[in-house]
Specification:
Blueprint lengths: L4 E6 L7 H13 L3 E6 L13 H11 L1 H5 E4 L2 E4 L3 H9 L6 H13 L3 E4 L2 H14 L5 E4 L16 E4 L2 H9 L7 E3 L11 H11 L6 E5 L8 H9 L6 E5 L4 H14 L4 E4 L15 E5 L2 H10 L3 E4 L4 H12 L4 E3 L2 H13 L2 H12 L4 H11 L4
Parallel strand pairs: 1-2, 1-5, 5-6, 6-7, 7-8, 9-10, 9-12, 10-11, 12-13, 13-14
Antiparallel strand pairs: 3-4
Helix pairs in contact: 1-15, 5-6, 9-10, 9-13, 11-14, 13-14
Length: 380
Amino acid sequence: MKIKDNVLIVTSIAEDVSGIEAIKSEFEKNHKDYNVVVIDERQYGAEKTATRRRKNRERLIQSIPTFYRRVKTVGHVFTVKSKNKIDRRRALSNKLSGSARKIYNAVLRFAPDVIVVTTPRLMHETIIAKKRTRFKYPVIGLSEKFTFDKAFYNMSADGYIVENVDMKNQLTAMGYSSGRVHVMGFPIEENVPDVDYVFKLKEHLGLNLNPTVYLSGGAIGSKELMPVFELLLDQGDIINLIVNCGKNENLYSAMLRETERRNSQNVKLYLNVDEGAEDTLLASDCLITIYDGSLIYRAFLLGIPVVAFAPDTGAEKSDLKYLMEKQLVYFADDYNHVIIGMYDVIQTGLGKKLSESALMRTRATSLKDICTLLASYGRK
């Protein structure tokens, strides 16, 4: 029986996990010798994926005890690691608290070949756990942003995966080794759909041939969406409207009531949990979204122009400023400019200009390259 290696991904419940799910899927298809274990604040790994090396070692001891327990070579004797060492490692968790302790317990449980972290806070907690317990597994930061958040920086990290060269330059300017920064885009794989597919998808959704706008409130479902939604309904039947309310059921209910009150026939509402909700993006001619790095990058890959609004943090504002300067998105300062931007994108050459510029900077093999890099740590 071949022992599978583990890739441990430490993420947050508040993050868009589409990239993480894509990594899991890619490993299942093309790196079958690995388990991808994803943990967040709610739970720290599923029981079925807990293929810990300690358990595998016990199976080997049971099947070939003489060979495993004692192998004599020239001047060397290899013996099984004692239970006392495991106990000492577990005792180290007493030095930790909170997330750092839980992350360390997950590290003990899964013994991963590489640990991938996706947020600044989790990078900080993971490095604390590594320093205090001295585990040797490499820690890699996966940034799904367009500019580097300085809070994500940690000199003790073993590497970073970033979207662009400018982010790499930011890291090296802070003294980080350029050889440990990998410019690979986002872990997302999409192809521009052909016209026939888009036509059939619109027909399947019950939409007419008018321009279709995809409105997103991010993974959580921001309340900032409601004023924009009402303004879009004011435009009447000249556009189709697809809305992804994220996980916000209250927002979904409020929008449904407003749609029924106005008797709007060209509106489709979804929650993230709805089957096929994310695929409806393929039917759109324009994406209007609060800041959502993964969704914006996905639109880039699909050749869909982006109108972005309502950045929530300094890091999000920095990202949108960068994307504006590179002429990759239309940034709306307020709700009225969202509508102005939509018409500019749909009715002028701006939409084509934005989508072509964005598509040129993406990497078609980003997902495969990222997974190949992570798998390489198992061979070191």
